[in-house]
Amino acid sequence: MQNRDRSVVVLISGNGSNLQALINHSASGDYRITGVISNRADAYGLIRAKQSDIPTAVLDHREYESRELFDQALANAIDNYEPSLIVLAGFMRILGANFVQRYQGRILNIHPSLLPAYPGTNTHQRVLDAGEKMHGVSVHFVTEELDGGPVIAQESINIEAGDTAESLAIKIHEKEHILYPVVVSWFTDGRLRLESNKAYLDHKPLADSGATINDS
Ligand code: GRF
Fold first, then answer.
1. Are 44 and 75 in contact (CB under 8 A)?
2. Ligand 1 atom nearest 89 alpha carbon
3. Which residues of the chain have a pLDDT value below 50?
4. The 192-195 sheet, strands edge to edge
5. Does domain 7-215 have CATH number 2.60.120.10?
6. Residues near ligand 1 with C-beta < 6 Å?
7. What is the Å distance from ligand 1's center to 194 Cα?
8. What is the pLDDT of residue 4?
């Protein structure tokens, strides 16, 4: 079972190192990135996309009077690329309920914490401030609840003495760059589904902490 044509649109706001990891893995043929959309014209990820001949679009949220109008324009831009899957990779805008419902089960996000712990921003510093011993990264389906959709996969790291928010960001990015392309491939291979607010891999419901890439 495959998800139609394996086409993927990636939404970014910044550096796009996860986008780069996704571009690199796409050479395998597991999926095709048919468009990259940014809400910021200066996002470095746009240059990464252009270097790989991937079409890009910029929609500056500040030019829209409301979240609904921005979401509508974003949906139009996405639909131009007719993707099977929408991949959020450092996209720093909250998407409204209508948008999320329109693409139900077809939007993934990567978040730098072991969800449900530490939703929101500034996760590395918050994890350090709380004296945690473990940290990690989660890929999840996007639902109306911010960073709250069913977890698909997680990878964890140990927090060591001397770690800072910066060192954790580096370690987390290394995990993200391995994990995200694998999960996107699960989806475009038709192995991953969202049903009744639960994530399924190969028809089996996933645990609340999702799978690890060793499960693939
Ligand atoms: C990543 O840490 C991701 O988990 C979070 O935003 C960051 C994006 O980094 N959602 P990059 O732009 O892919 O380098």
1. no
2. 13
3. 1-2
4. 192-195, 198-201, 204-205
5. no
6. 14-18, 89-90, 110-112, 176
7. 23
8. 61
